Amino acid sequence: MSETASLLVRRGDAGGPKSLSRYEVPYRDGQSVLDGLRYVRAHLDPTLSIRYSCINANTCKECMIVIDGKIDYACTVRLQPREMVLEPLGNKPHLRDLVTEIAPPDERLATAIKKRQG
Amino acid sequence: MTSPTDLVHLETDVLVIGAGAAGMVAALSAADAGADVILADRSLIGRSGATIMAQMTVAVALGSETPDDWHYHLADTITAGRGLCDADLATLVCEQGPAAIKQLDEWKVGWARKPDGSIKQTHAPGHDRPRCVYVDFLSTGPAVAKTLRGRVLRHDRVTRIGDLYFTDLVTSDDGVIGATGFSVSDGRPISIAAKTTILATGGLTKLYRRNSASANMGGDGHALALRAGAELMDMEFVQFFPIGHLAPRLVGMDPIMWDPFRYKLGGKLLNSEMREFLNDYGSDEGGRYIVTRDKATHAILKEVQAGRGSPAGGAYLSFQHIPEAQLREAFGPVIDKLAANGIDLGKMPVEVAPIAHYHMGGVRIDTAMQTRLPNLYAAGELVAGANGANRLSGNAITEALVFGRIAGESAAARAREIAGSSWQQQLAEPHLALVNASQPHPDLNPAELIAQLQDVMADDVGPFRTQEGLERALERLAALRQQIGTLPPENGGHFNLERVDWFDLRSMLLVAETVARAALLRQESRGAHQRDDFPGLDDGWLLHQTVTLRGDDLSFSRVPVRAAAVSEVA
C-alpha cells in the first residue's frame, strides 16, 4: 500500500492575496518535510518557493517555517503519512509562499542602498 | 516586466561575489587595504556555500603534535594531486596556511587544544603526520564561518548584501567593470560598478545527484567567469568523498559526517559478505585510516560493480567492534541524534557510498589570484591548481583562507590604480535585458530539469567514465539546453525560486558541459578522473586542460604543469 503525505501549504507573494495549496507527496519512511517540499517543486509545482541552502546538515538554519503550528526546521522534521500544514514564519516579513525575510537588516539590499546612495 | 526605473545601481571599489570563507576573508583583506567593498551572496551572508558544511579538518603545518614543516605538507599535497598540482599555488597554501590558522586563533575561532594549551592536530588520510586542526568533530566549518562573519560585520568599509543573484559580469575593453543580477528577495534588477571583482562562489558539486554541497553550489562563478572571457582549468577533476552517508535515511546531519569518527575509532568498511575489502585494491590500511579519497572511492564502487555492495548500493561502515563506552565517548551527543534516526552503532552498520564533494578544477588564476581578464580575481574552491587531480584531506579551508586573503589584497591594490569609475551603463544593458526578460514557459519545470541534469552527471560523468557514457551525457545535456530556451520564465515578485532555478540551469548546463568535454578528452585515469576505457596513468597526460568560451562554443587547450623539483619538497 502506498501512503502519501498531504501537504497543505500557505501560498502567496508579499502583499498579495494568500491561498492554500494541497500537494500529495509519496511517503517514504525517514524523509524530511524539506524532502517533501523539494519533491513538490521537482514534480508538481516549480513555482512553490522555499528557502534552504544546506539541504540536510541543519547548519545553514535557513529553512525554518511553521509546521503544524510549531516553528521548526523543514530539514529535520520528518514527513508524516497524513495531512501536514506548512506556513511561513509569522514573526518575520513575508516574501513569498514559505519564505520570509530572515537576514539581519544590515545584510539586506535596502540597507546597502541607503548606505551607498546616501 | 520590471521597469528600468526599478534598477538598483551601486558603485564600489571591490565587489566580492560569494560569502563563504574565501569571500569573507577576501572582503576583510581588501577592506583592510583601504578599499570600499561590497560582499554579496545569493543566499545569506556566511551561511551558504561549503564552509559551514566543513565537518572537521583543516590541514596546516603547525607542528604542535610532532615537528612539522610546510615543505612536508607540500610534499603530501603534491603526492595526493597525482602530478597535476601547480607547485606555486600549492606552495602558497602550505607556506601561508599557518599564519591563516593563527589569525583565526587570535579571532577566537576556538581550535581544539591539548591540556598544555597547544593546538591539537589529528592525523588525516594522505598526510605523513598529525596535521589537521579542528574546532569540534562536526562543527569546524560553522565555527570558521561564524568567526569570519563576526569580523566582517565590524568592518565599516564592507557592505554586506544577501539574497543577491548575479547573472553576468560586465566587461569593457579594459576588463571586468562590474556585474549584473537581481535581488532575490524582491526581484529588482541590479547593476554594480566595481573597479575590481573577486569571484568566491565555491564549487560545482550540485551538478551531481548525490552531493555534499549546499543548494547554491552549481558552478555560478565558473559560468560567470567563462561567459566574461576568463579561462577554466582541470574541469574533469571532481572529487567524490568515499563514505558519504547512504542509508538508513539520516536527517539533520551532513552526509559526510562519518569521516572524523572513522579517523578516531577506525570504523571498518565492509562489503556484502561483511568482509573488509580495501586490501583487495592494493590499499592496505592495516587497521588505520590512511587511504586517500580517490582510492577509497574506486574500491567501494568496484565492489558494488562486482555485486558485493550493500542493499542501497554502497558499502557497510561498521563500528560494532568498538566497545559501547568508547562509542559514547567518541560520538557524545551525536549518539542521541543517531538514535533519533533509528541508528544504533553498537548493533548495526550503516551504509555509505561515494558522494560528490569537491572540485579540484575551476577558474585559472596566477599566484595573485588574478584571472586572465583584467580586474577579475577568484579564490576558494572556485579556483584550479593547488589540488591537482585529487585534493588532500583538510586543504580546502586552508586554501580558502590563504587565497581569499591574497585575492583581497590584489583586488584592492588594483582598484587603487583605477582613478575614476570605468562603468559604462550601455555595456550592462544586454545583461540587464536578460534579467528583465519574461518568457512564460508553462510546460517547463526548472527544478525537475535540475534533477535530470544531476542524473546525467551522476550516471555518466561520475567517478568512472567511458567514451560512450560521456558522449551520451553530452547529448543529454544538449537536449536539456534546448528545453530551457534562451529566456527566463515569468519575471518578478519576491523570492521567485523558479526564476532562480532557470538562471541556475543556464549556468549549470554550461559548466556541466565543460566537465564532460574535458573528461572525454583526457584519455587516461588520474586521481579523481577514472576512465574505464583508459585505465592507468599516462605520462603524456601530465598536463592541464584549459577551456574558454568562443561565441557559443567551448574551446579546449593544454598547458604544462608548473611542477616542484622533488628535492625541494621531499
| Cα gyration radius of chain B (Å) | 23 Å
Q: What percentage of residues of chain B falls in helices of 4 or more residues? A: 25-40%
Biggest interface between chains: A-B, 48 and 55 residues
Low-pLDDT segments of chain A: none
Gross morphology of chain B? globular
Described by strand count, sense and barrel closure, the largest sheet of chain A is: 5 strands, mixed
Quote the beta fraction of chain A.
25-35%
Mean pLDDT reading of chain A: 93
Kindly report the name of the CATH homologous superfamily of the domain at 438-560 in chain B. Fumarate reductase/succinate dehydrogenase flavoprotein-like, C-terminal domain
Return the CATH topology of the domain at 438-560 in chain B: Methane Monooxygenase Hydroxylase, Chain G, domain 1
Outline the low-pLDDT stretches of chain B: none
Q: What series of H and E elements makes up the topology of chain A?
A: EEHEEEEEH
Total number of domains of chain A: 1
Strand content of chain B: 15-25%
Tell me how many strands of chain A there are.
7
Second-tier CATH architecture of the domain at 438-560 in chain B = Up-down Bundle
Strand order of the largest sheet of chain A: 2-1-5-3-4
End-to-end separation of chain A: 63 Å
